[in-house]
């Protein structure tokens, strides 16, 4: 079994500064060394993904990331393995894995290396990354795809939505966000539910005509934007509210801006229309 590329070269650690005191207590995960990388971890990656986190005693952020991944490894009940790489102790391995900074994480899937991230992230975002790793690994016959575990409030919200009880769903999502403020799925679910509440029983053509006939009626413009985005007209909704932001001031501008930010939550973060609208909004405000 061949070593990874650049195995014999050393990684530059000068940017990390002076060594600090080692972390108190044992670190989670299995320690990676030059000897066991190819002998143990690459073969292990044939049966389950291996998440390798590069860390240094000189980087408190990287130590916290190792601990966070240790907690997540337990919660995922052995569906992937955690390996920790001390780049001070194993600079050649760090270079082999193309480590440029810490924390740095890669996945080993079927003996192939997949870069994951090069900085600290909240636990919720790391879970998303891990789920994608497990899905990718499952598609390649390594391990199994992640089993989705929903929150009780999310189950309550989904049941309410299925029965058309939007208000109960809204309350459920708010409860979930009170408990987990960074939960991106809960934020999206709340935004979608509130859009359903605002547009329930409205007719698209009637609302658009009213908004067209009364361009200075801010409430109608917000309502029209809701109807547009609910019907897939993302650019039209964004354009309408951007126009209101540019044409108003004071409380009216604030109301339009905040409503637009709410609609931003409903669009995929990689959508170029969202990036364009954010840029236009920033220019309009500053």
Question: What this model shows, in words?
Answer:
This protein has twelve helices and five strands. The chain is α/β, with parallel strands linked by helices and 286 residues long. Strands 1-3-2-4-5 form a five-stranded mixed β-sheet, sandwiched between helices. A hairpin with a 2-residue loop joins strand 4 and strand 5. Helix 6 runs antiparallel to helix 7, helix 9 packs antiparallel against helix 10 (234-247) and helix 10 (234-247) runs parallel beside helix 12 (272-285). InterPro entries: Thioredoxin-like_sf, TPR-like_helical_dom_sf. It holds the Pfam family TPR_20.
Protein topology:
Blueprint: E1 30-31, H1 36-44, E2 50-55, H2 60-75, E3 81-86, H3 91-96, E4 104-109, E5 112-117, H4 123-139, H5 152-162, H6 166-179, H7 184-199, H8 204-213, H9 218-230, H10 234-247, H11 250-264, H12 272-285
Parallel strand pairs: 1-3, 2-3
Antiparallel strand pairs: 2-4, 4-5
Helix pairs in contact: 5-6, 6-7, 7-9, 8-9, 9-10, 9-11, 10-11, 10-12
| Number of helices in the DSSP assignment | 12
CATH architecture grouping of the largest domain: 3-Layer(aba) Sandwich
- Indicate the CATH class of the largest domain: Alpha Beta
Write down the secondary-structure element order.
Answer: EHEHEHEEHHHHHHHHH
* Low-pLDDT ranges: 1-15
Number of domains: 3
Give Rg in angstroms: 24 Å
Shape: elongated
Q: What name does the CATH topology of the largest domain carry?
A: Glutaredoxin
Pfam families: TPR_20
